Amino acid sequence: MKLPQLTLSSPHLHGDAALDRLMQQVAIALIPAIAVNMWVFGWGVITNIFITLIVSLGSEAIAVALRRRSVAVALSDYSAVVTALLLGLTLPPLSPWWLLVTGSVAAIIFAKHLYGGLGFNPFNPAMVGFVVLLISFPVEMTRWQAPFNPVAFDLGFFGALTYVFSGHLPFDISLDALTMATPLDHLKTGLSLQHNLSEIRSNTEVFGMVAGKGWEWANLAILAGGLWLLYQRIITWHAPVTLLVTLATTALIFNLIDPARYADPLFHLLSGGTILGAFFIVTDPVTGATSVKGRIIFAAGVALIVYIIRNWGGFPDGIAFAVLLMNMAAPTIDYYTRPRVIGHHQEERQP
Amino acid sequence: MKITQRKLWQFKGGIHPDDHKALSNTAATTPIALAPRLFIPLQQHIGAITKPVVTIGQRVLKGELIAEAGGHVSAPIHAPTSGTVSAIDLHPIAHPSALKIPAIIIDSDGEERWTLREELSRPLDLNPHEIRQRIKAAGVVGLGGAGFPAHIKLNPGAHTQIETLIINGAECEPYITCDDRLMREKPLEVILGIQIMRRALSARHVLIGIEDNKPEAAIALQQILQQLGEREIEVVVVPTIYPTGGERQLIQVLTGKEVPSQGIPLDIGVVCQNVATAAHSYAALYKGEPLINRIVTVSGESVVRPGNYEVPFGTPLSELIGAAGGVKGGGAATVIVGGPMMGIPVTDLQIAVTKTTNAILVQPPQPYPVAHHPCIRCGACAASCPAQLQPQQLYWHSRSRDFDKVQDEHIFDCIECGCCAWVCPSTIPLVHYFRFAKSEIWGRERDKAAADIARERHEFRQQRIEREKQERAELMQRKKAALAKKKAGDGGDVKESIAAAVERTKAKKAKLASQEATLESETIATPSEAEAKSNP
């Protein structure tokens, strides 16, 4: 379509909103989470992000070049950086290089550019990358390190990088000594063995004050970043608040029915990817719903699916699956939640 | 001075751009020096183009009628100064495609000799019809920007009670201060004009809406209201949010009512007029002066003396910018007719000031637009839209030329205020896409109407051919039957056969006549048939 130049059409003023700054701020909001994750899990967090960043930006550049668009423009929007950071944070620290490469390529090439690039992808790229890996490599994806393991810190950045590429630890210890099941994993296994919730939670190696040991702090750091995004008006409160409230309410109801089997709301809020999902994933404008009502429905749907998967599904956490499922529903949700146009009566929507 | 506090409503959306009003609102309005040659376009309003009533070479006096209204929705045009009509020729107007329309060109004689003016001391004694007639004769149109003939909006019809007359002094666009200066400098004329309008409408009460960034204007009007002891006119200060000055938005803020989509304010018992329209209604009734000049804001970062100027219509922009000291440094600039949010950039400074020219913006040359980022559906545009549209959807469907969907998203409720494009982080020229979609839809509807007519004609022709075929067949049958009967009768009555022959001749004649008639109609129908064939 040929249109005359921008200068020909009003308005001739523009506010100060800019896509690159918006994405930069999302990336900056992830810094506390990265710092705390590193404090909990050591250098493996940094190697993860280091590799996902390089591969994501490289994939973005190649895809954009193949599509004959400006590589500089595409890279300068920082969207690939945000995807890389999110993916790096959600994968187990010290993930092997091929896992990180596969996830990044799946996210950028398959989930994003095969659909037409930024703005045209129906599914959240980071979540697609995560799910591809979770389904394809379940063993590697559940090999999380134990929190506050001194070895993870003693490695140093290059030691960690060496391990990521070679699979050998510099010390005479096997990786199994480093890893253990995540709190949500633990919970699931324990419950399937008919253990009582308080018995399971009494394992202080795994559980901290309200949720997983270390994990609770990581989630609080993500929360700090999320609140900063709210304060900066990069995101609106609708989706995060709805997700948290829905998840907490559902958890509370089941917790009241059977406290021995169903964890309390606070545990659900500070475990797994809840906070990250609430502030950084369901707020993704491209793949989420756009209208205010739509955002609320979208986030509530994610929360319910997460709760179902955590309690009755085959996976310990369900943020990624829930988000992808709701991504599919987003256009429909948007269609049926359009606000009433001024001067119109509430209209009937034709299905 | 206390300004009445009354309950206000808020329209959804809107933006807060820097208003840049201080550039031009500090100095008093100054009349500009008369240009030697004025170019007066024959259309300066919404509605039918005017018909010139002067001839080339004719001498005209200031205020003399030079073009009469071209229809019911139209407004006459008067000579802005005395002089000689030197030509009636095409002249460019402020239009996105630099359209040229006929204009009367007057070489001024510099004498400013007025035609006869009928002054009235008590115009409020006139009945509403007479008031409207005088406003119409003075060529007064809405001076807020759209230029709808004022006398039509002042005619509610016999069965409509006007609850509220809203006077728009909001002036929400950045940089523009002509209404602000008018209200400060001529508050009495504004109020007396409002009284005239209220009388024409028999409106119950009047609300003057002024944004809170113009306290001096609000106070000036309030003082006059107190001096006059006028109780039915109320100054209401409203929050500064762009686009509060939009007719529908201001009505919503002041009354809480929404003007129906496709409807007009009259549908909800409201009429909205601009303050400058009121001031010129005053001039038309009290002083008998037609609308021949207006206050124009000349502002922007690149003009030497930004300010407000009283400009006769027909003055070329070059003269006006020259009167304002010209362009800073004498270099290049972007010139916009209107405000920065809805104005039209022009490419020709011979374009003249008309009734709807409220501002001229002289800005540094705009950078050539770089390719914009893709839409990330952040919804900032939807949140800012005062009509509560979904610009991201409108954009998506406009881009893919899916105009049914565009209409399903109510594109014609878009007022092109530009809020969406202002907030867009991807700097997408959204309004441009919407204008494109609207024009495409209008074009498509025109094509459809033409195709409908062609199809109807084609169907009619098919019917006619079918009917003729049937008639011929029946005739043949009758002939055959007659022949058979004759054979059977075998030399029957001679008289009978003569009568039959006469009958046949008569029928033949009649048929010939009818054939001629159809031949004629067919000749007329031919072009459309060709169209119908090519356009099934």
Summarize the structure.
With about 350 residues, chain A is an all-alpha fold.
Indicate the topology.
The complex is a heterodimer of chains A (351) and B (536).
Chain A lengths: L18 H11 L1 H11 L2 H23 L4 H5 L3 H12 L6 H16 L12 H12 L1 H4 L8 H5 L1 H11 L8 H4 L4 H10 L4 H5 L13 H17 L6 H20 L7 H5 L4 H8 L10 H21 L6 H18 L15
Helix pairs in contact in A: 1-5, 1-14, 2-14, 3-5, 3-6, 5-6, 5-7, 6-7, 7-19, 14-17, 15-17, 15-18, 18-19
Chain B lengths: L29 E2 L5 E5 L9 E2 L6 E2 L4 E4 L8 E2 L4 E10 L7 E9 L19 H10 L12 H4 L10 E5 L9 H8 L1 H15 L3 E7 L3 H14 L4 E6 L8 H9 L14 E5 H13 L5 E7 L7 E6 L4 H7 L10 E4 L6 E2 L13 E5 L16 H5 L6 H9 L3 H6 L10 H5 L6 H60 L4 H41 L2
Parallel strand pairs in B: 1-14, 9-10, 9-12, 10-11, 13-17
Antiparallel strand pairs in B: 2-8, 3-5, 4-7, 5-6, 7-8, 13-14, 15-16, 15-17
Helix pairs in contact in B: 1-4, 3-5, 4-5, 4-7, 10-13, 13-14
Task: Provide an overview of this structure.
- The complex is a heterodimer of chains A (351) and B (536).
- Chain A has 351 residues and is mostly helical.
- Chain A folds into two domains: 19-180, no CATH class; 182-340, no CATH class.
- Chain A has 19 helices and no strands.
- In chain A, helix 3 packs antiparallel against helix 5, helix 15 (238-257) runs antiparallel to helix 17 (274-281) and helix 18 (292-312) runs antiparallel to helix 19 (319-336).
- Chain A is globular, with a radius of gyration of 21 Å.
- Chain B has 536 residues and is an alpha/beta fold.
- In chain B, the strands form four sheets. A six-stranded mixed sheet of chain B has the order 1-14-13-17-15-16, sandwiched between helices. Chain B has a four-stranded antiparallel sheet with strand order 2-8-7-4, with no helix packed on it. A four-stranded parallel sheet of chain B has the order 11-10-9-12, with helices on both faces.
- The longest helix of chain B has 60 residues, at 430-489.
- The relative contact order of chain B is 0.12.
- The interface between A and B is large, with 40 and 66 residues.
